[in-house]
Every structure is written in C-alpha cells, then in structure tokens.
Write a structure and sequence with these properties.
single chain, alpha/beta, 5-stranded parallel β-sheet, 3-stranded mixed β-sheet, about 15% strand, globular
C-alpha cells in the first residue's frame, strides 16, 4: 500500500488557518498545535463531573464489548484525562467515507500527542444523535461499475422524521435490504462478504438508528481505544441539566456574543457567515417528538405554538431534560462544558464556525480547545491509477477541469473540420438563396410556405452537424467513458470522493495503513 500526500486545498480561509496566521488565530483564543498551546490547555482545571461522564460512556459502551484499550481510556477519562475529539451525524452504515476519516484523524493526532508531548490523550468520537436531519443521513452513494454511474441507495426515502434521530427505531427488514443493495454494488470482495454477515447480526441485535451506527464504529475502531459518546442519552441530558440552565439564563448574552463574533471574523478575514440560524436562544426542545427551535420574544420563550416563561422552561428542564438539545451555536459550547478537550478536529465548515463562536466562549468563560482541520483522504485503486497513466492525466485540485479539457480535445481531434465547414458553407448559401427567393416572391400567400421550407432545410443541416458530432463521440465512447469514470470516482462534482461515496467502496479495514502523522495535505492511498 502506497501513500502520497499533496496540497489539495482551494479554501483561502482554511489555508490561512492551517498556516496559523495571527489574523485568523486570534478568533481561536490564539491556540494552535504547538508546545505553548498544548501546555496552556493541559493546565486548565478539570471539570468536576468527569468521573460521572466516564461512567455514562462506560455503561453505554459495555453492551458492545469493551476492548482493553477502551477500558484504559475510560480510566484516563475518569481521572481527568484530556480528550481529542470530533463528531458527526449517524450516517447510513457510516457513510460517507469522511466519517471514518474523522475518527482516523482523532487516532492519528492522539498518536502524535504521545510522541511529541508524551501525553496519553483520550480519543472520543461524538455521535450527534440529537440531530433530526434524517434526509441528510438516510442514504449513501456507491459507484455502479457495470453501468459506470453513481447510484443513490436510500433507507425509506419517503419517511419523514422530526424527532432526534437517536430516538428512531429502524425497520430491521428494510435495513437489511438496504445493506444488501450497498454490498451488491460494492462488489464481491472476500472482506465485504465477511463483513456483511457481521452487520446482519448487528442489525438484528440493535434497535435504534444511532445504536446501530455506534455498533459499526465500535467494530472498526475498538482496538484503537476510541470512546463513542452518544449525546442524546437520557443520562447525558440529566448530567447536562446545570449546563442547559446556564445557557437558558445567559441566552441573551450568548446570542449577542455570537452575532458580534461572527461579524468580527467575517470582517477580518473577508469571508461569509457559515452559521445561519433564525433563533436567538440556540436550543431545541421536543427532541423525542418534533424537535423545535426555541426563540425569545416579548419576555417569553416560544417553540412553535408553545409559550414558556423562564421559570416554566426551567421547570421543564428539571423534569424532562431529555427533550432539550443544542443547535449549532451551543453544541460546541456544550462539548467544552462536558469534556476536558485538548484538540477538536472538524471539517472546513466546522473550523470556520468555531471561529464565529469565539466570543460565545469568552462571554461564558469557557476555554476553547486547540482546533485542527480533520485530515482528508482519497483512494486510488490500481485500475484508476492505470487509467490516469494511460491518458496522461494527473490527480490534483484541478483534475476535474483538466479532464473536461481532455475530453473536449479528444473529440475535437477526431472532428473533420472540412466536413463541418462544408455544412456551414451550405447553410450560408441556403440563407443567401432563400433571401433571393423572398425578393422574387410577389405573392403574399407564398411567404409562409417559402419561410417554412427554409426552416426545414436549416433544421436538417443543423441535425446533420449535431448527428456527426454525436457519432464522433460514439466512436470515442470507450475513452470518454474512462475519463468520465475517473472524474466521477476521484472528484465527483468537483469534490473529494470521501464526501460522496460509501467507505466500503474502497476497503473495510481502516487501520492497516503505514504510520501516519497529522497533516493538512490530502492523503492519497493507493489501494491494493
């Protein structure tokens, strides 16, 4: 297995962030991955509830079978150990591939932290079970090699879910059917056949959507000691009651700080807002039924048609904390109030919106962690590598445009310019002769007939040219199909394929790599 790293960024802000420019880092409490920042974060006081948090995670994970490495990390967490974390929604069978890559990033940074700073950080993956965006997680994409096209595989496409996905009980029969469709398109590799049997058993053993997702992640990363945190657990909500209370009581200051901080970072860096929200409270209620944003107007909190005084809302929190959840503004804040985080890894958008929230952390007196962009991975199977060499194409950030130009030149080279010129010459001649015919016509009833006849001939000439160009493309369909496949599988819609395709498209073992260190470059893996 070969690995190549390359600069693949097209985002000016992220480039400046990765280069640790002062004008950007000031929105992240001036923290970066260096000696001074690591020491500063490690010197912070430990949250008093850390032992209780470790017990909740242990109780949730025990049913999946704790590995020795996970047991050790749970002890470290209970003793106040700092965590390296990242999170994601519970995508269908861990899709798309960048979900896996986030966890790999956590593991790699944990290794680097031990090697560079002799500190055993705790790897934690946060499953956003409180999210209700079902349509974002109910599907995956697999490349259909036989028909050379992308296929969308969806679990119950007509289903509508308004509750937090962590409360959703999946249909086991339909989930298995969805699994079989994905596996069928991924191919008949031996590793996939063995994996299918294990996952069928997981589907039968579990009940909830996030529970199945947890089981899948656990199966892949348990030996790496990754702790999996399900944010929607009732025990977590009970632990968070005091933190939610602080957010409710400070909702005005939080909103003003968010608006102020967002405006500052965008003005300083010349960027546009990432966080778009209509609320001024930044909390949801109704997570177990219909998840609805809270707002504050005229002295009352409102959620849809429901109205609450502050006292009523706090009473609801006290009796039913499980119905509360965070939105994009308060979720990072909740993470830092729960965990003693050393490093948070996120995608480009996440990195940006943490910067937009810097004044929220300041006003709440909460320290930010060191923020890093998660690592990005690409896969280059032997067949695609061979095709790149055959057509003398290079995989780089401009590959999509490069491939488009190659296809255009391939067709252009095969076109008989003289043939097309002759069609254009005949067209121009016809236009000239029909103008003369109109000039000779003195009978009004013939005008429409002559014009119709002219349009018919022009239409036929236009058809002849279009049909000729189509036949040239058809003659080159094998080569054009190869280049289109390269585009679709390596950079679909101009984006890295990790953002689109299911990870099983490439492999099932995501630990058997040569030693890697954290990098902001794209890691291109040449798969066997």
């Amino acid at each position: 297995m070969e690995i190549e790293c390359m600069n693949f960024s097209k985002d000016d802000f992220i480039d400046k962030f990765n280069q640790q420019e002062e004008n950007v880092l000031k929105h992240y409490q001036n923290l970066s991955f260096n000696d001074e920042s690591v020491e500063a974060v490690l010197s912070r006081p430990v949250h008093p509830h850390t032992g209780e948090l470790a017990d909740i995670i242990r109780n949730d994970m025990e049913k999946f079978g704790l590995s020795e490495a996970q047991e050790e990390n749970l002890k470290r967490l209970a003793d106040g150990g700092r965590v390296i974390t990242g999170g994601q929604q519970a995508g269908l069978f861990m899709s798309p591939a960048y979900i896996i890559h986030k966890i790999m990033s956590i593991i790699i940074v944990k290794k680097d932290m031990k090697e560079k700073y002799d500190y055993d950080a705790v790897p934690v993956f946060w499953v956003a079970g409180e999210d209700h965006d079902y349509e974002e997680i109910n599907h995956t994409y697999v490349y259909d090699s036989m028909h050379r096209k992308r296929r969308k595989i969806t679990y119950k496409p007509n289903l509508r879910i308004n509750m937090s996905i962590g409360f959703y009980e999946y249909d086991k029969k339909v989930m298995k059917e969805t699994l079989f469709k994905i596996m069928e398109l991924c191919g008949d590799r031996e590793d996939l056949l063995a994996l299918r049997d294990r996952i069928e058993s997981m589907i039968d053993r579990h009940t909830y959507w996030t529970e199945l997702f947890h089981a899948l992640v656990h199966d892949v990363f348990k030996d790496e000691g990754v702790l999996i945190f399900n944010s929607h657990l009732p025990e977590v909500r009970e632990l968070e009651k005091g933190l939610f209370r602080r957010m409710i009581e400070s909702h005005g200051e939080i909103h003003e700080a968010f608006m102020r901080g967002q405006e500052k970072i965008n003005a300083a860096c010349g960027t546009s807002p990432v966080i778009q929200t209509d609320t001024n409270v930044h909390l949801f209620i109704g997570a177990d039924m219909a998840r609805t944003l809270l707002s504050f107007t005229d002295g009352h909190f409102t959620a849809g048609d429901e109205r609450y005084t502050k006292e009523e809302l706090l009473e609801l929190l006290e009796s039913s904390p499980h119905v509360f959840s965070n939105n994009v503004v308060t979720r990072p804040l909740m993470q830092e109030m729960l965990f003693n985080t050393l490093v948070f890894l996120g995608g480009n958008a996440e990195v940006k919106y943490w910067g937009e929230l810097h004044e929220v952390f300041d006003v709440m007196g909460v320290g930010m962690p060191i923020i890093l962009k998660r690592m990005e991975f690409g896969y280059l199977p032997p067949r695609l590598d061979k095709m790149l060499r055959k057509y003398e194409l290079t995989f780089n950030p401009d590959f999509h445009t490069q491939a488009e130009d190659y296809k255009a030149s391939m067709v252009q080279d095969d076109l008989n310019a003289g043939f097309i010129d002759k069609i254009h010459e005949i067209t121009e001649s016809a236009e000239k002769h029909y103008r003369e015919l109109h000039g000779l016509n003195s009978q009004e009833f013939m005008t429409d007939i002559v014009e119709a006849n002219f349009k018919h001939h022009i239409k036929q000439l236009d058809y002849l040219e279009r049909r000729y160009r189509t036949e040239v493309k058809r003659h080159r369909r094998k080569e054009l199909g190869d280049v289109r496949e390269l585009q679709e599988r390596l950079l679909p819609d101009g984006a890295l394929h990790e953002r689109i395709y299911h990870p099983w498209q490439y492999m099932t073992d995501f630990r058997d790599f040569p030693p890697l260190s954290y990098t902001t470059d794209l890691v291109l893996i040449k798969t066997p």
